[in-house]
Amino acid sequence: MQKKKAIMIGAGLSNMAAAVYLIQEGKWQGDQITFYSLDDHGSNDGAPTGDVTDEYWNKNHPMENQKGYVARGGRMLNYRTYVDLMDLLDRIPSATEPNMTAAEDTRDFDAKHRTFDKARLLEGGKGIIDGGHLGLNNKSRMLLTQMIMMSDSDEEKLDNVTIAEYFKEDPAFFESNFWYMWETTFAFRTRSSAQELRRYMHQMIYEFTQIEHLVGVNRTRYNQYESIMLPLINYLKEQGCHIVLDRLVTDWSFKDTTMQDKITVTGLHMLNVTTNQEEYVAVDDDTAVIFTNGSITDSATLGDFDTPAAENMDYGAASSLWKKAAEQFYNLGTPDKFFADRDASEWVSFTLTTKDHLLLNEITRITTQEPGNALNSFISTTPISPLHQKDVNMSIVVHHQPHFTSQKPNETVIWGYFLYPRRVGEFVTKPYIEMTGKEMVQELIGQLSKVDPGPGNIRDKEALIMDSVINNIPVYMPYASALFNNRAKSDRPKVIPAHSTNLAFTGEFVEQPYQMIFTEQSAVRSGEIAAFHFAGIPMSRLVPTPRYDKDLKTLARAAKKMFA
Amino acid sequence: MKKKMILLSIGLGIAAAGAGYLAKKTGFFEDDAWLYDEYDSTLN
After folding, report:
1. I need a labelling partner for A204 at 20 to 30 A (CA). Which of A348, A410, A429, A555 fits?
2. Which residue of A has its CA nearest to B36?
3. Domains: count for chain A
4. Is A397 found in the same domain as A469?
């Protein structure tokens, strides 16, 4: 159904991508597009802490220490598979580098700072582990091969199957280096969807051969807000798009139909969270509504150096609205699968800012690698999982410095996360979710001390390191892995659901052919599809998707690697 | 010689059939382009 105007609910990456394609491919004017959103920093964000303290939720929960930086999440790119993202970034100017597109900016930076992780896994008493030895047994190899060989048209056989269930006859799989690396590179948990793991095995099959060094990983020059979101915001504002922030869209008005099977949005109810006034926006026949129906950072909360992040029990802003739509129509998926099972999806992350490079240099010494190359995961020395197995207890990402344009030369910013926040720390004996920023730094130093090859030990410098900390912001994200939650294929709405006349779904909670989620790639592609649909552009002009899972050389290399 | 050729042909035939079966089973030749047709407003 072709339209002449668009209302975007949510101002994240997928809807901004939709707007760019509407303008550039659909030849729309920017002022035909209006965004309504709580904020415009995307789910990944990244900002000086003081910039976010007045945002929704945060402003009612003031932080004592507002210094330093905060990035709720952290992501890596992959040019070879993120083809739609790179196409998008090629269409807009960089926000920080003159005369470069955002794609050229990233390619330029990445070419000068190639990723080659030398300490992907670390274990107390052993130091750096050889992750190149995947540690799979024959049963694991067989089950993984079956998963890789399962065709796209058969993937519904994995409806409602968790990874734990898929590998139930092979618990040793969860103590393999392969699993330690795969779970922490992509953030899978044992209760995540086997169907999604299958998609990853297909779309990321060539990463299989180089996962211990993360050779295929590409990174942006700065945090992804400044390197991806800001170029989009600048471009769209320049084009005349209306970006209305501090709006929480709370409900829909739909056109009544006999069988209530035709989906036509006629109005949106929203709350201005600044004035607390309720507002209503009518949707006419010429207008498309493009809705990002979930965010993995919805309901996220911030702590500080002396305060743990509070546990926010909100269902989530975007997902609450999705739920209201799904209650009215049968084919809009099952939001509860993703947003009513936080035990399966929650994480705690932290963003550590220091006033010097002491900790950074110590990490460089221990991991033998330069900042910017690292995703270091620390394996426990004792069983910590429900299966009484060892597992990764925390991971850190040491960015290339500076990670923020406003960061001072003497400052360091490091990001880390705990995939299972209810587990108890080894050095601070309380669940990670209850830790202050300070206790998380103590836990990190403890983990580093276990793998320190010497001479001396990082713990000897603990007091100096603690003195160097400007702030460490713990962030509780109840839905960080929600997009991986166990599901059936029908639990997510299609980008354009059947019988929809003007409503599209975008982001990480929509069903698209082949695409794996938790990638900027799938988010952008969903926006591209929605834009092409409403602007009347043939789908044959979508960016072609590479299929490495059908490349015999790649498959042969993966098969060989499986025996490493 | 002729017998060897026949056996070789049978062997190659079985291998080709096996490879074809495997390719079909794993969806090697599946094309997902048609899955986007339902979104294509220019086809309506």
Report:
1. A348
2. A539
3. 2
4. yes
> Is A563 among the domain residues?
no
Distance separating alpha carbons of residues A313 and A513, to the nearest angstrom: 33
Radius of gyration of chain A (CA): 23
Q: Averaged over A148-162, what is the pLDDT?
A: 94
Residue A265 belongs to what domain range? 5-61+77-92+221-299+312-343+486-541
The chain A residues in contact with chain B (CB within 8 A) are 1-2, 149-154, 494-496, 498, 513-514, 529, 532-534, 536-540, 542, 550
Residue contact B40–A533, C-beta within 8 A: yes
pLDDT (tens, 9 = 90+) of chain B, 44 residues, equals 788 889 899 999 988 888 888 888 788 888 888 899 999 999 86
Q: Is A246 domain-assigned? A: yes
CATH of the domain at A135: 3.30.9.80
My answer on whether A440 and A521 are in the same domain is no
CB contacts < 8 A, A to B, total 50
Together in a domain, A270 and A193: no
Provide the β-strand partners of residue A349: A417, A475
Provide ipTM, 2 decimals: 0.85
Residues on chain B touching A496 (C-beta within 8 angstroms): 38-39
Q: Which of A539, A540, A542 to mutate to test the interface with B (most CBs of B within 10 A)?
A: A539
- What is the pTM for the complete model shown? 0.95
- Tens digit of pLDDT for each residue in A479-519? 999 999 999 999 999 999 999 999 999 999 999 999 999 88
DSSP of A96-154 = SSTT-BHHHHHHHHHHHS----S-SEEETTTEEE-TTS----HHHHHHHHHHHHS-GGG
Catalytic residue of the set A21, A200, A222, A548: A200
**Looking at residue A482, what DSSP letter applies?**
G
> What confidence tens digit (pLDDT) does each residue in A169-206 have?
999 999 999 999 999 999 999 999 999 999 999 998 88
A564 inside domain = no
Which 3 state secondary structure label does DSSP give A262? coil
Residue A249 DSSP SS3:
strand
